[in-house]
């Protein structure tokens, strides 16, 4: 097909070992057009190809547009949706960018049929309105009570929207999404997240993992830790682990350890999970909230906010639930998306202090909860068990 790579920044670009000139008409395959468009601004003929349902019914073939990586929530979920679908005998044809994901090499060599269905695991963008596919499904988790208004017409042009929690189903309806909305779940890769035998070093350790941000409630966590455990209490620690390079809440307390680099999984298991006795996640909102579930799989309980995606897997034998109130999601509305995003939760700091102190004072009970948590995740929340929700939802719409 005819395309133009529309870039004033470069005279040519490198793709698949070859250089392509910008600003002039090129003749490329449909698959190369799709994959180039994930890296560069591309102009192409606005065309819709007819959908062939036999690609799914006979061969379980579908397109899948997403970034793949092993450090972000979106990227990690995309990796596992692909891996688990392939394990079930499905034939995904992936387009997107990948960071440190070996599976992408095999998938990137496969052509994307023009008349397949495309699954978009991304936040809605303007280019969706010009999708060349006649059958499109969006997988879009979100963390507040409303998605940005600019997303709604893009979502309503698709055939269905998949979300990972009940709260997100209602959020989409309240936001004005009128196409079918399907509930699917994320899971844990049990080959990576296994129960760990933890050695007692005499220090009770709380841990949190992810982007250390306002949405994740890092500000609430750090303040609650310092109020719960005055400096005279030496046998307690908080580890904050992130792959990002910023952290705004350093209170200069030697008991707070911040790990700020992306590391191989084995090192993360050794330097983070094996040292943590209780996971803490006072988030203001989650589409699903995978990190507490992964921590539970290693054999520790999780303190979690009692709202949004976390409630999908809440179990009182494995979790301590935080009280909260609903407040405007000002950070998202004014700084991140600059559109009204409704509300999210504000976890109760006093309740968090109380539950952290309970863990510190009841360490044998915490260990029992952790043992139960690992069994609970293995029995109910692995990708092998949850991928059927995704493929059954595809069956309904393809």
Model description:
- A 6-stranded parallel sheet has the order 7-6-8-9-10-11, sandwiched between helices. It has a 6-stranded parallel sheet with strand order 14-13-12-15-16-17, with helices on both faces.
- It has 13 helices and 19 strands.
- Helix content is 32%, strand content 20%.
- The chain has 3 domains: 1-45; 48-188, Rossmann fold, CATH 3.40.50.11930; 204-384, Rossmann fold (3-Layer(aba) Sandwich), CATH 3.40.50.
- With 398 residues, the chain is of the alpha/beta class.
Report a brief summary of the structure.
By secondary structure, this protein is an alpha/beta fold.
In total, the number of domains comes to 3
Low-confidence stretches: none
Bulk shape? elongated
Strand order in the largest sheet: 7-6-8-9-10-11
Give the CATH H-level superfamily of the largest domain. Answer: Glycogen Phosphorylase B
What's the CATH C level of the largest domain? Alpha Beta
Averaged pLDDT: 94
Largest sheet: 6 strands, parallel
Question: Could you tell me the strand content as a percent range?
Answer: 15-25%
Individual helix count: 13
Give the distance, in angstroms, between the N- and C-terminal Cα atoms: 26 Å
Output the structural class.
alpha/beta
What is the helix fraction of residues, given as a range?
25-40%
CATH architecture of the largest domain: 3-Layer(aba) Sandwich
CATH fold name of the largest domain? Rossmann fold
Integer-rounded radius of gyration: 22 Å
Say how many strands there are. Answer: 19
